[in-house]
Specification:
Blueprint (H helix, E strand, L loop, with lengths): L1 H12 L6 H30 L3 H26 L3 E3 L8 E9 L2 E5 L7 H12 L3 E5 L5 H14 L5 E3 L4 H8 L5 E5 L2 H13 L4 E4 L5 E4 L5 H13 L11 E5 L3 H15 L14 H8 L7 E3 L3 E2 L4 E2 L2 E3 L17 E7 L2 H9 L6 E5 L3 H10 L4 E4 L13 E2 L5 E2 L1 E2 L1 H7 L1 E9 L14 H11 L2
Parallel strand pairs: 3-4, 3-6, 4-5, 6-7, 8-9, 8-15, 9-14, 13-14, 15-16
Antiparallel strand pairs: 1-2, 2-20, 7-18, 10-13, 11-12, 17-19
Helix pairs in contact: 2-3, 2-5, 3-4, 4-13, 8-9
Amino acid sequence: MKALIEEQKKYFNSNITKPLSFRIEQLRKLKSVIKEYEKELTEAVFKDFQKGGFNTFLSEFGGAYTDLDKAVKSLSKWAKLKRVGTNMLNFPAGSYILPEPLGVCLVIGAWNYPINLTLVPAIAAIAAGNTVVLKPSELTVHTTAVLAKMIRKNFDPAFFAVVEGGIEETTELLDQQFDKIFFTGSVPVGRIVYQAAAKNLVPVTLELGGKSPLVIAPDANLKICVKRLVWGKFVNAGQTCIAPDYVFVHKSIEREFLQRLKIEIEAAKFSLANQNYAQIISEKHLDRLVKMIEPAKVFIGGNYNRPNRLLSPTVMINVSPDDKVMEDEIFGPILPVMTYEDINQVVSFIKARPKPLALYLFSESKSLQKKFLHEISFGGGMVNDVLMHFVNDDLPFGGVGTSGIGNYHGEAGFKAFSHYKSVMRKNTWFEFPLKYYPYQNWKFSLIKRLLGV
């Protein structure tokens, strides 16, 4: 791995990756390669999750293609030298900000969306002019194997390489001197990555997770709310970092909400055969989820099949903040429902806990929307929908606090893998004498006047 990093450093220092023409050529090539391998990757995802092709295209390929097209179209604008103002003390001069690539970047992908969450950060790194070492998840064995084959057959490893493996290989990678580390995964592993990066003073972007709340106000359009909630919670069997983790519904509409929720879940007919569901990634993860379920509090679902790694969409009611299901991020098809009467108590509840990656509010009230947006800190979120902010590449995506550091998508991804270099170019036909010796009172007074103090 050390030799691989040295090769990439040598390649980067040759300045091959810096011209925009090279970057655009590689981005177009990557899109072509993904399209060539789309069928094989779709089959690999099916082997890992039993997910159907339609489901896989929407959740895996759509975002990657969009980011590739956006980068190709906008790269000249993003990378452009930007002129900024210059203060009077530096007259005459011009001041500029110049984006430059960071260098050799490590991208550690996640298993829940093994194509999108692995390739989209790499797309941003390439657009910014870096070299990339890609580490896909070891849990998605089939998808990772195809990704590795795809990249190795089409790209020089000195520019774009793949390292397969588990904890041992990842640990060895983290010991190397990278110029940037981008990690998507759980909070506990994110801490390990952050600590490893700190040893070498490597900048990081951490896309983590947490318990993302969904709050339903009395004035919510329940028909739309429930339809969007059921889709967003149970897509990919709940294995989505921004899925609603728990629900707070106003006591006055709890019964109607639960009735509609049951009808919508039953109408969706979630199953592998219907291609609108997925397996839990491993038996270990399934066992963890099953331990969260209290049978006495199950409103619907709660059934599981361990050999097939399946857990039915499950709704739990009469949930207490002290219940096991409320301790950690669920990351599965379990939806705890709690009720409230005072919205201020809900706000206090959320603020007393780690800042969530996402927050969702269903309400028509502008004042309530404003209250949530201005009083609660969260990575990103939506009013009257779920998840869909992720697919708008004009919105930076990322967490805050323990839910993540930094963001990406579109131009935000370009910025995540760039250093913005500040440059001042001075003319030589005139020089202000104020900064030079001898220091005199008239100089001191003029400087203070120029500074407005």
